[in-house]
Amino acid sequence: MSTIMKISSKNLASVRRRSLVKGGIATILATGMAPTFARAEAKKLVMAHINALPESAAVAFDWQAKEVRERSKGELDMQFFGSTLMSKELDIMNAVKSGNIQMGNPGGAAATVFPEMGVFLVPYLVKSYDHAYKMFNGAIGDKLDKQFQDKYKLKTMCFFDYGFRHFWTSKKGIKEPKDLRGSKIRVQQAKVFGDTINGLGGNAVPMAWGEVISAAKQGVIDGGDLPIVNMIALKIYEVSKYCSMTFHNYGPTLNTMNLATWEGLSEPHKKLMLETSREAQNKCRQLTESVDNAAAAKKELEPKGMTIVEADIEAFRKVAQDKIWPSYKSQFSGLWDEIVGFKA
């Protein structure tokens, strides 16, 4: 009798389990919840950037992260970290190359990480924003993307820029090349920046950004150069009196993804990442270009104590063509001809 009872109990429990499972599945299917238990864990895409909000690129990529999470319905968990994960551009790029993080960019140090980008920094070679945008969103950008995948194992998500560089100085404005004589101007550590300042008539002082503000306060340097958008974001008006609009170096850079991470994405997710990257690119460009003219610069910087100087750009261009262009033309011969011959 006890054996019969035991068997009956087991059978009853089994029947109940089957009923519960059946009923549970029916309920899940009826309510549209079926994917929940089968859904893969969200793919994390951590992105590091050198600057925090409200810097223009930070605004654009912070926006992209939110859009990616929303449009992928949580399948891609893109997380943006501006100025919190790492404080140096090279550290960010090494982390992306190694796969320790999935996305990042070299900020203003693009030519240091990617020497191929140095040609775009040659003073006055890139003629305008329109010239730059059409090159990078066309065949030249596609060629560079292929090179960077093959050589650095990095996928280019988009090219963006910090705009054209202008001089910020504490003692005097820079209207003509002769005004640079004797001035100690901080430059980034890529060779093209030093060649630009020395070629235009100043004394280049290579220096990491972390040292710049204290060096300016102590008089170790007389100034430096930055795009307007970064003069605002970095509060350069606290250590300088003049902004001289020379438009001497165009500042392209690029946002990248670890190539293995990119290749591991589904085709719909690749499409989503490229679409939102192009949208972020457009946002960044709009924010950068909107302040890069004399009227906008005056509106932004003069209330903060800076004087805007409109420089003789053609005089600077002529010096650059005579003194700086020849060596770079031979160094970047193929790409140089493509840039010069490109019709915007």
Task: List the main descriptive attributes of the protein structure presented here.
344 residues, D-Maltodextrin-Binding Protein, domain 2, four-stranded mixed β-sheet, five-stranded mixed β-sheet, alpha/beta
Q: Topology of this structure?
A:
Blueprint: H1 2-31, H2 35-38, E1 43-49, H3 56-71, E2 76-82, H4 89-98, E3 103-104, H5 110-113, H6 129-136, H7 139-152, E4 154-164, E5 166-169, E6 184-187, H8 191-200, E7 203-206, H9 212-218, E8 223-226, H10 228-233, E9 242-245, E10 250-258, H11 259-263, H12 267-290, H13 294-301, E11 307-310, H14 313-323, H15 325-331, H16 333-341
Helix pairs in contact: 3-12
What is the count of DSSP helices, taking H or I runs of 4+ residues? 16
CATH topology call of the largest domain: D-Maltodextrin-Binding Protein, domain 2
Query: From the coordinates shown, what is the CATH architecture of the largest domain?
Result: 3-Layer(aba) Sandwich
Helix content, binned percent: 40-55%
Strand order of the largest sheet: 2-1-3-10-4
Major sheet details: 5 strands, mixed
- Any low-confidence stretches, pLDDT <50, length ≥5? 1-38
- The share of residues in extended strands comes to 15-25%
Kindly report the average pLDDT value.
Answer: 89
The secondary-structure element order is HHEHEHEHHHEEEHEHEHEEHHHEHHH
Oligomer: single chain
Query: How many strand units?
Result: 11
Question: Could you state the CATH homologous superfamily of the largest domain?
Answer: Bacterial extracellular solute-binding protein, family 7
Task: Please identify the structural class as seen in this structure.
Answer: alpha/beta
Radius of gyration: 27 Å
Shape: globular
